[in-house]
Amino acid sequence: MIRKTLPGKRWLRCLPLLLLAAIPAMAHENTHYVNDSGATAWMLTSTTLVLLMVPGLAMFYGGLVRTKNVLGTMMHSFAALAVIGVLWAILGYALCFGKSSLHGFIGWDRSLMWLNSIDDTIMSANIPEYVYAMFQGKFAIITPAVIAGAVAERITFKGWMAFIALWFLVVYAPLCHWVWAPDGWLFNMGARGLIDFAGGTVVEICSGVSGLTLALYIGARHGYPKTAMPPNNLTMTLIGAGLLWVGWFGFNAGSSVASNLDTARALCMTQVAAAAGALTWVLIESVRDEHATSLGMASGILAGLVAITPAAGVVKVSGAVALGVAASIACYYMIQVKNKLGYDDSLDVFGVHGVAGIVGTILLTFFIRPSWWAEAGHRVVGWGLTQQLKVQTIGVAATIAFTAVGTLIVAFIIDKLIGLRVSESVEKTGLDHDIHGERGYNLTNLN
Question: Which domains does the chain have, with CATH numbers?
């Protein structure tokens, strides 16, 4: 006897198959992230703030050089906006955040060239990938711009343009991939990887060591250190320092890639460390030299900001103060050492960015907040200060070695192909007139 199944109940037999078929569809659906307008708004703001740091840096450096070189020096920062801005969109993002290639040396994803594959992408952080790409692109721009201060007043403009283009591909892109890409080797070292919240290694140590290497390769300015080379406009330098301080809120707090408690922590620590660094420097000057200088104030601000950059997401207020104080002291005395040794790091790029970056990246280990340690303990039992200190030290050492060698190679290539050092006559006349055909201050025409 053949049983007849009621037509209305046939779907019950198919229900298990329908459910099984639906599981992959539902799983796939969960990978489609929804844009968070609040987080996106903050990341757009952060990207703008980091961009503000470039003209801020240009003003900071422009005020520190002699009158005849103010425009030429500021042009170095804006050149980074142009050169790296284009390179980043074409292949920089692919090199930094593509899948590991060449045994993890660098990233690569052909689909990321020209940012082609991110046109419709919302990331797991619930922001458009375009926003993240542009945010990271500003870090790639500001880093070579910082280097320019070490060789101010004596590098050719065409040589500088070629140098930063090749340097970005050879030095910055691999280092960025190591530290910030999800499959980078420093990102995954140990239980929690290298702690570098916003660029202690990638931006600060990298730019400081690169600047020192390039300065030593090119050589000192004619007349240095016997000839006095006073700043032309400390008023402009102070304004530049203020713009950098403001921009640094986007630099650090934006690196949370969110708008939440981590963002608030990073912003707070940035403010406190900068203030501590500034206060420490002027106190040192007041005691040793019996007067506090505006240049000292600006230098202390930068020292505190640089030191907190890798640590902003993991320390509490007491740690931020300690790092700001320690960095300011270390940078102040490093500049005294530079003056005794006589090498010409024109605007103290290594003395501030390099030294404070090293101080912040290593010493942050001693000020990590308890909640961070608790989270690390859940991942690897027994993970503690000694293990993390080892990771931080390895990260700093690797950054210094790779950056110094890579920069030296790039400098040698560009110097032989194009030339890096201006002639003595051009240096005496000034970069503004001889290279750019302009003058920063037209003091002869008062009308």
Answer: 31-432 (1.10.3430.10)
